[in-house]
Write the structure tokens for this entry.
Amino acid sequence: MRKALGRGRSVMAAALLLASGFQGFAALAEEEEAARVVVPRIQVSGVDEAAAELVTDVLLDVLFNRHGITALGPSDIQQMLSIEAQKQLLGCTDASCLAEIGGALEARYLISGRIGKLGSVNMLTLKLIDTQKSELAGRASLKLTKMEDAVDALGPLTDKLLGRTFRAARASEIAAFRNRDEARPDYEPMTRRDFCKAYDEYRVALEKERYDPKHPETREKLLRDVILTPHQPRYDEKISCIKQSVAFMGPRIISLLRGADTEAEALDARKRFHEARAFADQLEIVESDYAMGLEKVKLNTGTLPTKLSFEVKPAKVVVAEDSAEVKEYRRVYAFGSKLMERALETARGGTEADFAALFAPTKDGKERSLTYTFEGIGKAEQSGYRHDACPFFVLAIDDVEANARLLADKGELKVCFRKRDDKGSAYLRDVTLVKVEGKWRIDRW
């Protein structure tokens, strides 16, 4: 082994732990033999290629300075691998391929990364590959407010990937000490109990009550309280309180939107949905900013954030583009909706033959098997569900635009019916119609 690689390398054991659904290093204990770690050049997408070398160098520094791991970098790989193997590494992305490369270098672990930009979204992702098992042992990603934050983000992101904390003093204690004399707002953060209560009231209001123009003010109040919480344990408790339900808030409101009886009810639900999504998106920014603040405190280069890094505004409700295709789809949808209602009414009280008469002939001329569909609607209604054709105003914007293109390109009309329960929630099911001798008929249910 070359002297440059041996110098300063900590001795590590390879123990993996599955905890709360996350696989990563549980410990790298000292043993007589060192487990080699390899870090290929970070991949980039949509950003300057020069960023790859810089981010890779910082990652190598982070592994050594924060965790005592001296990893093999791109220059080491270049010396140890053949030209053909290096070419293979360039197109290597899945776990088994990366494990093969790591195995060729006699490395137990390989850490790969990607930094990229898609539209306005910047992402930094790290993967931990166990080369002996040829499997992904850990993954950590972070959305960046701006690409320049990648350098500061690598420290906490690597901690998360390895499942280990920084070796220095606890960041929350350092932060509390450093910030005691800093110019911070004259604000006393809520206790965990008060915060969780305030958040639950906000969440319940979005899920069960009509939209309130004061919702954005409440969103700002909650997010500001989180960012101004100086002690990390209390900050973690507040984040945990939110994470228990924030992922379910949007889908619950969408279900209510689908069950709306009037256009006004649908619009109100859309406002609440976009408010919930704005909260979730801005919470990600708050988490990123707080992590950056902790990193700056550790490195003695700054403090925790003193304010939100964004302006809180009422969430904008997205509507379908007013194109000729969408207008035509809206017009034709009315005819399809009537056929849908007729089919549902027939399934409730008609015969299977009458139901089948509403369908287009099959392409191969064979008779359709509709017994399951026909009887299923009746049984569901006997169980307390209600069926009706979806009003146009409950359709998702993306679906409207996609269905409009389908109608224009192929002449197929997508409509839907909804299955509603007694709580107001609704489940949608698409049905495709085609024209037969100038009349719309059901083609795919």
Remarks:
- Residues 263-298 form the longest helix (36 residues).
- The two ends are 66 Å apart (CA to CA).
- The first strand starts at residue 15 and ends at 19.
